[in-house]
Design a protein that fits this description.
The chain is of the alpha+beta class. It contains 21 helices and 10 strands. 61% of the residues lie in helices and 11% in strands. The longest helix has 33 residues.
Length: 670
């Protein structure tokens, strides 16, 4: 009965979405307030129905109701409760339902909190959001029903992919979807603005917090996925340029460009058409990622390799959404009036350079991701585009972007003085150069690329803090606390985010330059030396988990000494796990964090003669990767607390002069 209730809720949600997608649009076109007013309650009801459906499916998973096909295919009665819950989105149907819940949730958030939006714009935004909802609700109802019954009822389920039975991956997909789907609001605002034929600073003020929130969620999701790959897959890596990884990275790049472009629209009333196009492309890339993951065109640990017929449905939906929005852009964008002019050397010019490089980098990743798929479809030839291509093309595009990222915030709007900005960065450059010289003096065999990476990372970290330092300490230490409190939080958030990028660059440089890897077949009592540590195998025993059996190795770790082994510093227990509901074997690495990096040990298969394949790593500064990403997210969250984002564009006030509000500038809300 619960499954039928969930199915019925999805049907109601689709009917409501169809009403929301049409009636408010008609009302906005005719100026009919009673039709415009339909948008907000419809968005709330649609979210409520999606919530009922989602929690109905979750109930079926928790109760191990194997009469529901989705539960039978993705759950098992022996699974821990956590993985019964997360199994809801560990499959195609359930993850699509989570997508719909988040999509309708963002629409409900606009309906609930966007009360200062002009009624016609709000109606059009919610109508476009509902059109997207209609597409996904049709997809789930007609091709991917999560409540489909199976008869006769199986006694036991098939279980969840063992790789997905991990706390990190339990929270990774929801954050990733919050980012993917969050960009749908930027898309809806862009299409609504094209329909109205009006893009102004107030529009940018409204769209920026939603875009920033989506960017924070997507950054968090990508970071959690990287962390999961690092400790769970046993390869010792954190990013593999997998097509599905790229599917989330491309909208992140486009969304980052969109965030910076919207600043120019808000501050200078220019780059309007480009910002609208970026909003369309960012969500289009999110939809493309959905197609890649769910179409069955590739096999990945991340992908739902499903019936290609579902891929055809998504492909058709892609054509309608992307083609329709780009056609509307082609018709309406030329009518958007250009804003203020600016010199190439200016804050606007720096942000344009930022956008060009990010867009080019995104196009490079898109080409490398889709080229093998197109070649296979057209000729049947199989090619692999992996890290060598992306490292050779993506990296060089990032270097000028990262260098300019420090200079741009020091340039004034409209017209700047590059020499003056560089003079203010003289100390930053000297410290960065000194860091590179110091590293070279300590290790003369270090590559020039590594030294350049150290210099670049130091430049970004100190340069990111420079605008904050100048605004807080420009009058000396006295009064600095008051000046810090008076600063816009967006300025503080920008400093955090830019520093976070520098921290990631530093971590990447040190890790890729000085990491140590050792492979050895070890028997009980054998030792392996890894970067100053001696790892001794003491034994391998069987250990039972809640729904798996593990071969657990015991390693004692000592400091390497010339006179012999010192005391045991720690004991590590890597595992090989075999799950009762799956023939797949997983690797559980043993990771010991230290001040300078991670000691990382993996045990492999037995050789049949008492030996075990063992791989040991020392990964210096690997924590900096995730700490830097956390700083970026923290910067985004701090920026979201900025009063200008909370207030948004100024609310309309009653006035005897109807034209008075038309000339109001959003700076009135600051």
């Amino acid at each position: 009965m619960v499954a039928e209730l969930g199915h019925f809720a999805l049907i109601v949600a689709m009917v409501v979405a169809a009403v929301q997608a049409t009636v408010p649009l008609v009302g906005a076109a005719r100026g009919a307030d009673e039709l415009i007013a339909v948008a907000r309650p419809a968005a709330l009801i649609q979210f409520l129905m999606a919530g009922v459906a989602f929690f109905a499916l979750m109930y079926c998973f928790v109760q191990s109701d194997f009469s529901v096909l989705t539960v039978f295919q993705s759950s098992h009665s022996l699974k821990p409760l956590l993985y019964k819950v997360t199994g809801v989105w560990g499959n195609h149907e359930g993850s699509l339902l989570l997508w719909i819940l988040i999509l309708t949730g963002f629409g409900a958030a606009v309906a609930a909190f966007g009360t200062n939006l002009p009624p016609t714009l709000a109606a059009r935004v919610l109508a476009v959001q509902a059109m997207i909802g209609v597409g996904f609700l049709a997809f789930i109802l007609f091709t991917s029903n999560p409540f489909e019954r199976v008869f006769p009822v199986p006694l036991e389920g098939r279980g969840l992919n063992p790789l997905l039975q991990d706390p990190g991956l339990a929270i990774h997909p929801p954050f990733l979807y919050l980012g993917y789907v969050g960009f749908s609001l930027a898309f809806s605002f862009a299409v609504a603005a094209l329909i109205e034929g009006r893009v102004d600073p107030a529009w940018a003020r409204w769209v920026r917090p939603w875009t920033l929130a989506a960017w924070c969620f997507l950054t968090t999701g990508i970071t959690l996925g990287s962390w999961w790959a690092y400790y769970e897959l046993g390869w010792g890596g954190f990013w593999f340029w997998d097509p599905v990884e790229n599917a989330s990275f491309m909208p992140w790049l486009a969304g980052t460009a969109l965030l910076h472009s919207a600043i120019v629209v808000e501050r200078r009333d220019t780059l309007k058409a480009w910002t609208i196009l970026l909003a369309i492309l960012t969500f289009s890339l999110s939809l493309l990622g959905t197609f890649i993951v769910r179409s069955g065109v590739l096999t990945s640990v991340h992908a739902f390799a499903t019936d290609p017929a579902r891929g055809l449905f998504i492909l058709g939906f892609l054509v309608v959404v992307i083609g329709g929005s780009l056609a509307l852009f082609a018709v309406r964008a030329p009518a958007l009036k250009a804003g203020g002019l600016f010199a190439p050397i200016s804050r606007e010019g720096a942000l344009v350079l930022n956008n060009l490089l990010l867009a080019t980098a995104c196009a490079t990743v898109l080409l490398g991701t889709l080229y093998p798929l197109f070649l296979d479809a057209l000729t049947g030839e199989k090619v692999s585009v992996g890290p060598p291509f992306f490292n050779a093309t993506f990296g060089p595009l990032m270097v000028p972007l990262l260098v300019a990222m420090v200079v741009g915030p020091l340039l004034p709007w409209k017209r700047g003085d590059l020499r003056g900005a560089l003079e203010r960065l003289r100390f930053t450059f000297l410290v960065a150069a000194s860091a590179g010289v110091t590293v070279y003096a300590m290790a003369t065999d270090t590559s020039l690329a590594a030294i350049g990476g150290i210099i670049l990372a130091t430049w970004i970290i100190l340069g990111g803090l420079r605008p904050l330092y100048e605004r807080v300490f420009r009058g000396g230490v006295a009064g600095s606390a008051e000046r810090l409190r008076a600063l816009p939080r967006s300025a503080i958030g920008m400093a955090f985010a830019h520093c976070g990028i520098g921290v990631i660059v530093m971590g990447l440089t040190v890790l890729l330059t000085w990491q140590v890897e050792r492979d050895q077949v070890m028997r009980v009592g054998d030792a392996m030396n890894v970067s100053g540590y001696t790892i001794v195998l003491r034994g391998v025993q069987s250990a039972a988990g809640p729904n798996y059996v593990a071969q657990r190795a015991n390693f004692d770790v000592h400091r390497t000494r010339s006179e012999g082994l010192g005391p045991v510093l720690m004991t590590l227990h890597p595992e090989k796990r075999s799950y009762v509901d799956s023939p797949q074997v997983t690797t559980e690495a043993a990771i010991e964090p230290t001040v300078m990096g991670d000691l990382y040990v993996v045990v492999g298969d037995a050789d049949g003669t008492g030996g075990y394949a063992v791989r040991g790593y020392f990964k210096p500064f690997v924590h900096w990767l995730w700490f830097g990403a956390a700083l970026m997210v923290a910067g985004g969250v701090v920026s979201l607390t900025d009063r200008r984002h909370r207030v948004g564009a100024p609310s309309a006030r009653k006035s005897r002069d109807p034209g008075a509000l038309a000339g109001a500038h959003p700076s009135a809300a600051e």
